[in-house]
Amino acid sequence: MKKISIYSISILVALVSSVSAFAQKGTVMPSAVRIGTDLGFIGVSLFDPDKQQFEINGDIDFYKFFITADYGMTSWEFSQENFAYDNSGSYFKAGIDYNLLARDPDLNVIYFGFKYAHSSFDENFNYSLNDPFYYDYAEQISKPGISAHWYEANFGMKIRVWKDLYLGWAGRIKFAKKVSSNESLFNTYFIPGYGKANSDSQWGFNYQIFYRIPFREKPPYKPKKIKEKVDRDTESQPINNQQNEFNFN
Amino acid sequence: MLAACETTDCITFNTRFVILKFLDSATGDSKSREFDLIAAQKSQVIFYSDTSLSTYLLPVNTEEERTLFLFLNPDQSVDTLEVSYDKTVSLISKDCGYDLEFKNLGIIQTTFDSAVSLENELSRLNEENINIFY
């Protein structure tokens, strides 16, 4: 798993480097950063007294790609008559999305992409047992400083609704989860940003709102072949004229 | 151990009972063994009294990671069997509650002549955890 992490980070670094290289050549320069948040999580925090969840999302455009990053915080606690559970922590996700609507004049986005995610959190579980055979007892289990990482394949869209305001949704599958913990007495129950820890993969859905902050005017996208043809035609035009003039003369 | 189980997701096959099976040392077949009493150190109750069975279900002490079972024979001699295990607590859900899982069952010491540990995980799917030949 450590090798996979190194490979995935290497792939991300390579992709970012490639995009940066494009940017340095002047072929692609970021035109805006888009900052957003998850409306679903805000709804959960408002209506579920047990759970507080907040996530901030960002992306920056490079050619037909977006470098994306998410940061979230979660606090969840609940109890029943014979047990109590609480979990608090944060997570970040970083990756690259490919935009299928690179030529859209409204800068709408339909994308698919890949992310690496990492979560750090604390977990506590207290329970009591009314034992019919031995003596009743209660136990407190604390698991501080747990970390987990996983990968996400995601797809979704961001649609302009007014000026620089965008609404979007994202579907994602989370997989290859790895949890590191020194304590084996309690099986980790919940991973912030991932979900229930007992599942090897998880589906996720986000309903998001974004605000786009432009740095500069985004140049209209021209496919390479058309651009080359236009450039060639533009360059050859005066020569043709000269040739025509020469021929006439 | 499970609290408020209302859905099929709450079903678990974990158990706290060690399945102890007595067998004939000559033939290997199941063979009933009579005890006046079976209990455990720190237990509040007697698990069996005046019983003759070939298979006994013995609850481990879930607070600790070892249990000493005591067997009072009809001749008033006492046999012992001490087992160790690893306990793991899992929270299934808010509605289902928590579950206790016991793995790596082993025999620490016993006065029975021949005791063999077989399945080292306590599960309702098991047929036997420890066989005792006599």
Give the beta-strand count of chain B.
9
Number of domains of chain A: 2
Mean pLDDT of chain A: 82
> Distance between the terminal alpha carbons of chain A, to the nearest Å?
76 Å
In which range does the helix fraction of chain A lie? Answer: 10-25%
- Could you give the order of the helices and strands of chain A? HEHEEEEEEEEEH
Low-confidence stretches of chain B: 1-7
- C-alpha-based Rg of chain A, rounded: 26 Å
Write a concise keyword list for the protein shown above.
heterodimer; A: 249 residues; Porin; 2 domains; 8-stranded antiparallel β-barrel; 3 helices; 23% helix; disordered C terminus; B: 134 residues; mainly beta; 5-stranded antiparallel β-sheet; 4-stranded mixed β-sheet
What would your notes on this structure say?
The complex is a heterodimer of chains A (249) and B (134). Chain A has 249 residues and is of the alpha+beta class. Chain A folds into two domains: 2-79 and 90-118 and 146-218, Porin (Beta Barrel), CATH 2.40.160; 224-249. Chain A has three helices and ten strands, in the order αβαβββββββββα. Chain A has helices spanning 2-25, 39-47, 224-248, and strands spanning 32-38, 51-62, 65-80, 83-99, 109-129, 137-162, 165-180, 190-191, 195-196, 202-214. In chain A, the strands form two sheets. Chain A has an eight-stranded antiparallel β-barrel with strand order 1-2-3-4-5-6-7-10. In chain A, strands 8-9 form a two-stranded antiparallel ribbon. The termini of chain A are far apart. Chain B has one domain. In chain B, 0% of the residues lie in helices and 53% in strands. Chain B has strands at 17-23, 33-40, 48-53, 55-59, 66-72, 78-93, 97-110, 114-117, 130-133. The A-B interface holds A 78, 80-83, 85, 125, 127, 129, 131-135, 137, 139, 141, 184-187, 189, 198 and B 1, 3-4, 40, 42-45, 47, 59, 61-63, 86-91, 94, 97-98.
